[in-house]
């Protein structure tokens, strides 16, 4: 480092020095099962390792912990796995996934005490929610119209409906009265 105490050549600790000390601390300090990187640092880069030891003591003092700040996750239970599969399946269905996404955004952005941008995002999420219901209603009306047409055209027959032998529909007593 050319006789400099800190990386940027300043007299005081800088944010770059803190960043480097943090990353090197993750390499050097915690006890991990495979410490090949720690060994490589001490064997091949002894000057960097010496700088790190001094910089760490000056920046953090002598107090340190050998533990990592995170823990390994517990393996998920069968119930959590089934719930994750159900959520992914629901999110893959076009209208249902859109509705679930807009509901999550609406809950996230409509908490009390949020700034103007958050309230705007809540309004956008509410509009998306309405758009999903509009598309759902349009799809329902379209399917209902198609179903009614198939029944009217005779392509789809309801159980218990009588058809005359000549292929025409029979409207029973009401049809006879009206001449149909």
Short structural summary:
This protein folds into 2 domains: 1-69, no CATH class; 78-153, no CATH class.
Care to describe what's here?
With 180 residues, the protein is mainly alpha-helical. The protein folds into two domains: 1-69, no CATH class; 78-153, no CATH class. It is built from seven helices and no strands.
Strands, helices and their partners?
Layout: H1 15-28, H2 36-44, H3 46-60, H4 78-92, H5 94-109, H6 116-153, H7 172-178
Helix pairs in contact: 1-3, 5-6
Keyword list:
180 residues; 63% helix; 2 domains; mainly alpha
Structural class assignment: mainly alpha
Low-confidence stretches: none
SSE series: HHHHHHH
How much is the radius of gyration in Å?
Answer: 35 Å
- Name the overall outline: elongated
* Domain module tally: 2
| DSSP strand content | under 5%
CA-CA gap between termini: 102 Å
What percent of the residues sit in helical stretches (DSSP H or I)? Answer: 55-70%
How confident is the prediction overall: mean pLDDT?
79
- Beta-strand segment tally: 0
Total helix count? 7
Largest sheet: none
């Amino acid at each position: 480092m050319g006789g400099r105490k800190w990386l940027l050549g300043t007299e005081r600790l800088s944010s770059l020095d803190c960043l480097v000390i943090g990353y090197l601390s993750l390499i050097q300090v915690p006890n991990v099962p495979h410490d090949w990187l720690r060994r490589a640092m001490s064997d091949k880069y002894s000057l960097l390792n010496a700088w790190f030891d001094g910089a760490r003591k000056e920046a953090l003092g002598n107090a340190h912990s050998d533990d990592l700040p995170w823990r390994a996750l517990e393996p998920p239970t069968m119930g959590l796995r089934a719930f994750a599969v159900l959520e992914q399946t629901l999110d893959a269905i076009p209208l249902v996934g859109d509705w679930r996404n807009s509901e999550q955004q609406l809950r996230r952005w409509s908490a009390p005490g949020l700034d103007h941008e958050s309230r705007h995002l809540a309004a956008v999420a509410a509009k998306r929610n309405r758009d999903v219901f509009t598309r759902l209603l349009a799809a329902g009306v379209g399917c209902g119209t198609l179903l009614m047409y198939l029944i009217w055209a005779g392509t789809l027959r309801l159980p218990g409906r009588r058809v005359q032998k000549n292929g025409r529909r029979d409207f029973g007593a009401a049809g006879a009265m009206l001449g149909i």
